[in-house]
Fold each of these.
Amino acid sequence: MEGKMIDENGLRIDGRKVDELRPIKIEAGVLKRADGSAYVEWGKNKVLAAVYGPRECHPRHLQDPSKALVQCKYNMIAFSVSDRKRPGPDRRSVEISKIISEALEYVVFTEYFPRTSVDVYIEILQANAGTRCAGLTAASVALADAGIPMKDMIPSVAVGKIDDQVVLDLCKEEDNYGQADLPIAVVPRTGDILLMQMDGHMTLDEFNKAMEYGFGACEKIYQLQKDALKRRYAVEDVEGLEEEAPREQQDMEG
Ligand code: UDP
């Protein structure tokens, strides 16, 4: 896009500073039938993640006698974007499902559950750039919510470059017309990088700055992930939501 995407005050088209995240809300345990789930609103992105398993892996020839498989399906629903997306898998969603599966497999103690599959569904209900990061962030909360033993959760965020400046967490316009897009995902406990993709170009200095922004943001997102889990279990302890009684009965029980 011709013209500036960062104004003279250093603010972006949605009013954010270069190193500012969009508002993020995370809620754990939103689906009753799933073993674990999470809902994430991240700017205008709305993302649902559901985890089922570990359960017997089908078809059986995929079973691994030494460990569980982590099988993620990322799906963008048809009207999550302005130009209706043709339903069903495409190259992009197959790629994103693969990279998210690999990142999640790294943190799950898969050797505890041989021959099983941990199935992770990510549904993008509304998209505005950064959906793979929001999806992975949601999926790791859902895995933890399912009680699946894991080394850590995985916060994820995209950094990029617009108007020759490094910026954190690109929105749709910035993603479309910017100069670079660099999604990352990290293990906060160890600093390991589990996902890094790069679209566009950056100098080494810009890359280093992008990593500084990205790692800083992942720390904040990690805190939101932990807070979501704490809220989920604090409520459950008090109200016994596991077997939810009808409202009148709850009232009678006080
Ligand atoms: N997008 C779209 N139609 C598509 C795929 C993507 O409109 O078929 C939009 C959507 O808002 C998405 C953004 O383009 O979030 C950026 O897509 P990208 O492939 O960079 O992945 P993301 O940033 O969502 O991880």
Amino acid sequence: MNRNDLSLLLKKHNQEHLISYYDNLSQDDKYKLVSQIEKVDWKLINLIQQENQQEKSGLFEPLEGMRIEQIESSKNFYYDLGIKAIQTGKVAAVLLAGGQGTRLGCDGPKGMVNIGLTKEVYIFELIFNNLLDTAKAANTWIPLYIMTSIKNNEQTISFLKEHAFFGYPKEFVTFYIQDMTPSVDYGGKLLMEAPDQLSLSPNGNGGWFSSMIKANLLSDLHYRQIEWINVFAVDNVLQKIADPYFIGATIATNHLSGAKVVKKANPKERVGVLCLEDGKPSIVEYYEMTDEMINERKDNGELSYAFGVILNYLFRLDKLEDILKYELPVHVVEKKIPYLSVDGKYIKPTEPNGYKFEELVLDMVHLFDNCLSFEIIRENEFAPIKNATGVDSISTAQQLLMKHGYDL
Ligand code: UTP
């Protein structure tokens, strides 16, 4: 595209500022910038005016799931079934590690954060230990795929190599890189992070499967004869990975997907709640729930919408392939986005300054015909590290880990 066409295109979309540094760029850098601009999905920018229209609007009903007592009563059966699925090589795990951890304020990959008190204990280390626990119980290795982003891929790989994958065999670990999307300021202007570079950020954890396909990993999954994929976040240091009970219960009850859930600490807890929307499983965010839904109770006094997701899902691979044809909704998320100011300074804001566009794994659940809501004991399996201080922070995770006898 020549300068004139570029200028016309940017004018049409009200983004002429992107050309401010163009004339001083080298030929290669001009090419780099133009190729990024050509890839911009202009529809995304209109979404910032329509944020509320993204909210779910179907008919919601509670989803009865499998509760702790029920799991307890059949636990040996589920465990054996889950272990068998793992031992016959039907289960893979996907670690979502492409996020930027802006709330935590870490510069590099969140998994590299040391949460030890008297020694080094890395988030990645705890995650690998959790996977090792299952691998040891099943006496086999579980293929692990790690999704990174272009921003943290190299650092993640070299960190894990340096630590010898915390004891996991590297032949069973595969990395792939997720897609990126542009970010905008509150007025809808695309942000730049360098004169030849739009401010691009990872496109949310919902792109994990499509990015896997783009990375040509579907044939790998088929070659390994994988049937189930356990997808999980990097920041819940207590979670069980490829949990045989969860896998066994999902298979035994003929579900196509499963979600680990915890009982909400209080009706207004800020978690996504697994329920039914128009008869299909759906995760409704806390800000999408009406007061009526938040407070509705069953005859026995329990909350009707009582169980929140923890970002640990099980999906059947053949069904994931079926739903690839559907587009996931794009969420407009307010974030702190580093950018190049008009006078050419690189600014790292301390407060949110614009929007990123993200697809979320929780929206995949609605594309499945059913989903097992599998209850876990919160304090045993849920220690997320999201914020620098306060709730769901390093210190709350440390306390929970120490309660479980971890030496930090
Ligand atoms: P979060 O939604 O908590 O995002 O991610 P985050 O990037 O870690 O943190 P904030 O919101 O910027 O503070 C939940 C999980 O999804 C992964 C994260 O790495 C984490 O494991 N994720 C998130 C991705 O893999 N890619 C993304 O684009 C976003």
Amino acid sequence: MSSNDLHTQGLTQLARGLENGGFTAVELVTALLDRVEAHDTELNAFITVTADTALQAAERADAERNKGETGVLNGLPLVHKDIFCTRGVLTTCGSRMLENFVSPYDATVVERLAGAGAVMLGKTNMDEFAMGSSNETSYFGPVKNPWDLTCSPGGSSGGSAASVAARIAPAATGTDTGGSIRQPAALTGTTGLKPTYGRVSRYGMIAFASSLDQAGVITRSAEDAALLLGVMAGFDVRDSTSIDHPVPDYLAGLGESLQGLRVGIVRQHFDAGLDAATGNAVRDALAVLEAQGASLTEVDLPNLDLSVPTYYVVAPAECSSNLSRFDGIRFGHRAGNPEDLLDMYCRSRGEGFGAEVKRRILTGTYVLSAGYYDAYYLKAQQVRQLIADDFREAFADVDVIAGPTAPAPAFRLGDKTDDPITMYLNDIYTIGANLAGLPGISIPCGFASELPVGLHLVGPHFGEEQLLRTAHQYQLQTDWHTRCPEGYA
Ligand code: GLN
């Protein structure tokens, strides 16, 4: 393989190439850094490029390989969403509030991936504090979708998704609170996995809504996602919500056929809110699963319609609490020349946060206030439980639930920015899995208006193996995940 086409390969292929000496990690990293240089001006997918440390890490990876001491990801490049703390590297969370924050420590996810030999190329652009579905709330400007530069790549992990779609990085980390891995994966034709809540440590991942946030990956294929999840997953003493549950060999189970797999379809997912061409692509994908031996049945999730309103009470409530630490004293931007302490707090937060973050903090403070707590926050927690119960009942009869990831393909930048409710509805199919703590994956399954469409699969708690196997078997039969946007081949 020549260094001109290293960017076309996914992680598992690159791992084989490094293994059999086809190229070195330094050659690979150099080739990809050249692509950052060539394409990031138009895409704006990166907030920070760590070229020097990436080359040093690649040299170390090559030296280790020569000594025969290789981790499973030795020399494999990836990018991290700028929500993960990275020691000695700017970690902004897409906000002016953290514009100058250099983290003194690594997030567990970053530490584990680096420990297995992965090489970080840089930190990716994102919606401010992961609040958004289009990447337009970033202080660093919107990311462009490589399939159409006038369109959004989705959000909040839009920089991660765009860099994988544009073949700049073979893989990226992301976080998903209501859909922020799966929706951008759908809108950019990439594979996005959100694991079970507690499967991957949240330590060092800047908190948005702690009971919903989960770290995951955006890759070219389910196989690559399986490779990374095996390294990232597992208990962490530093995250009290991480679960001590054995980590299976996610790659080992991929080969099994789908014969006998019970796939549940949610009727409400195919109602009037779904774009027609998107619906057709998803129905075709379901037919492929059926042809591989899966059986399709309808399942009922009666409370699912309440998932978006429930989320927009719970997530703002938690964010209003989590973001109180950014006060210009303990953390974050500090306003200049304050008149007094109160002025400093008010102006530091006023200047540091953007409009969407302020909207969430105000909503959250309101629903948690003494007079409204029972009416909003408590009620939302009760409905959240009902939604989780619906899923539990459905999984008594089916192994996975399948449907569209997003209601339509990528939308134009600017189209939804004046209308938060329409923006919020982009996550209508993904939010339920976060409220119930379930794993979900989005895989490319076709096109609508020449833009990628995602198939969404949700599994029971710790059902990642089943999801990855289903996605992998589908990807063996189809080539949607190999399609590349024009100009990035
Ligand atoms: N789009 C949703 C929101 O704005 C979800 C974001 C996320 O998953 N981080 O909150």
Amino acid sequence: MALIIQKFGGTSVGTLEKMRNVARCAIQAHENGDQVVMIVSAMSGETNRLLKLAHEIAEVPDSRELDALAATGEQVSAALVAMTLQKMGARAQSFLGHQIRVHTDGAFTKARIRTIDGTRLKETVQEGKIAVVAGFQGVDSRGNITTLGRGGSDTTAVAIAAAIEADVCEIYTDVDGVYTTDPNMCPTARKIARIAYEEMLELASLGAKVLQIRSVEVAMKYGVAIHVRSSFSDRPGTMVVGEEDLESVTVTGVAYDKSEARVQLIGVPDKPGTVAGVFKLLSDNHVSVDMIIQSASSGSGETTEVTFTVNETDLARVKGLIEAHMDSLGGGTSVEYDSDIAKVSIVGLGMRSHAGVASKMFSILADEGINISAISTSEIKVSCLISAKYTELAVRSLHDGFGLDKLAQTNPPPNKQGRKIRQSS
Ligand code: ASP
Ligand code: MG
């Protein structure tokens, strides 16, 4: 007997008919002898519909009321799923965030979970009932309803898994797992059987479509095994686990991101404080910067070049800020902008112990005639900035160049390995 979390996203509970499918899935696990806690999102499109209503009233609606409104979507689906389970002969009970004390901080629309009291859920499943929890919502210390940010039901699911020490947190979604790269961009993309939390976080541009990033951080902190799988098939999906449960491969996935823009400052006075001034300006205005490259100083104390990337959506604002700041850089500085760029990245834990991964990446791109305009690295990732028109070519050649098209798709049965939650720190 295992204690399992089954989380269903909006598309999986989008109609009453689909609710019968998810109910069947939970009942099946229950009949196999497992205890089941379901977490549900709002019916597909519902959160958007609610937020749209709010924005018809005010351009910037009050955030407390926005959360009170948005949280209703999950209340509806939790109650409807519980009724569906009952209709199908199971005993079931729904719970809202505050009823199981999902305590959060008071940051409306992006609250973070502080604690969850698992007692009531544990009692419910011990009585042989299926518990159905409204995802995405919590309550702050003053009793206000809060929500956890878009896609936040994933985080509810993982946090509850940690709180009640579930054996596995199954996230049912409309894709059947996490892929080595975007299958729409690269026909040889393969489903990854097991991936480490750290890799999943670095592959955010791929993974974010599947899991809320925050949920992976919580899973990593508490050692919750996540099983990302399709709500339309029985086949195992992707296990997101700690690295001790993995065989190391050098490169696990190839990600790309077309949403960045490049800002290049030329002729910047090469003296202490200039670069600090530029980035303080950006951070004071809540612009987050991704890659930063400064060309080597000549040492002669003359000028240098600074290149950095920001999100495309911030570019207009950044232009205004930089232009207003030009005077304090001295007369000789000029600036260029380019939003036709893409960042391609290779990610893998194995990079820590294998030399030559970055140089192989550069040669693969060079062989395709793709010019690299900036590079950044972390312990388990190498990113290159290239011209956007080469994105597909770069992704495909890196993917196959690192042998990801030949990855074995063996996956241990979900009921065995990878189920047990290890409590860490
Ligand atoms: N319903 C919320 C949203 O659409 C939360 C979720 O689906 O996870 O973002
Ligand atoms: Mg989602």
